[in-house]
Amino acid sequence: MISLVILISGRGSNMAALLDAVGRGDLPVRIAGVVANRPDAAGLATAAAAGVPTCVVDHRAFAGRAEFDAALAEAIDACAPDLVVLAGFMRILGEAFVQRYAGRLLNIHPSLLPAFPGLHTHRRALAEGVRIHGCSVHFVTADLDHGPIVVQAAVPVLDSDDEETLAARVLAQEHRIYPLAVRWFAEGRLQLRQGRVVCAVEQAAHPWLIVPASAAG
Ligand code: GRF
User: Fold this and answer.
1) Whose alpha carbon is nearest atom 7 of ligand 1?
2) Residue 90 belongs to a domain
3) Looking at residues 73-92, what average pLDDT do you find?
4) CB within 8 A of 24, min separation 6: which ones?
5) SS3 133
6) Ligand 1 in contact with 91 (CB < 6 A)?
7) For the domain that residue 171 is a member of, what is the CATH number?
8) Can you give the pTM of this predicted structure?
9) Per the structure, how many domains does the chain have?
10) For the residues 120-131, what does the mean pLDDT come to?
11) CB distance 11 to ligand 1 below 6 Å
């Protein structure tokens, strides 16, 4: 069974979705640790309550990004994970860090990449008037929010939406696609080869990856 480390900065609902999937027997991985860059990250308590070892590498304690990245890598490597999962981790990681975990570093982003990289994705989607929005799981590269895409879920944007309702609809799908992508990796069905995603998955088995308005919440 592969092991993973999850990196968080805050609430940790994507982390909780992964923990829940493991608890239900839907995700054949061992969660070796959760690392936060903020001591007040609410997800730390959720992880501890689930019996997962946690630690904090506070970015404010380091002179610069290289020093922080090195300390973070040390905390991760202490768990010797097969996969590192960014789940609402709000620090930009340097090239050396990204290279160290190349092909085994995943992120989830609340937009249909390559649209809306960066912050405030739901606000920007509403401002642009897009009719379809969603979320993406991708391998992390040094190019922020532009790594090779593994899986996406699309949701409608409704006339009645505000930032909060749209974020909630997208988040519900994040909680479905992240455990799925991690399961594919754990089952040896997902790889990064020469910068491209190779994923041995029957796409027709997952029709809900485009979510009809009636089911999107
Ligand atoms: C999620 O929307 C995730 O896609 C983004 O930050 C948010 C984190 O939420 N990167 P949570 O901490 O997983 O609840």
Assistant:
1) 88
2) yes
3) 97
4) none
5) strand
6) no
7) 3.40.50.170
8) 0.94
9) 1
10) 98
11) yes
